[in-house]
């Protein structure tokens, strides 16, 4: 394997028209979408379980970020979403 000292790729840290630059907390949209599909009753038991696990993970990560930024009410809201799904007894982690 040959190693070149000169970089051949220029990486950019994002573009001004990226959605993540226009909307804070993009995962809140993902969390809402997961809640909607879980509540729809259209998923198989296996797919529902997977969606719930992802929802809980995303909600807890989002809550942690909100707490870190001093948004305590928002953090509690997303922790509540995670607890709701955990208490239903369908979350396996």
Automatic annotation (TrEMBL):
Keywords, comma-separated and alphabetical: Transferase
GO molecular function, one term: transferase activity
Keyword Transferase: yes
The keyword Transferase belongs to this UniProt entry's keyword annotation: yes
Domain of life: Bacteria
Protein name stated in the entry: Glycosyl transferase
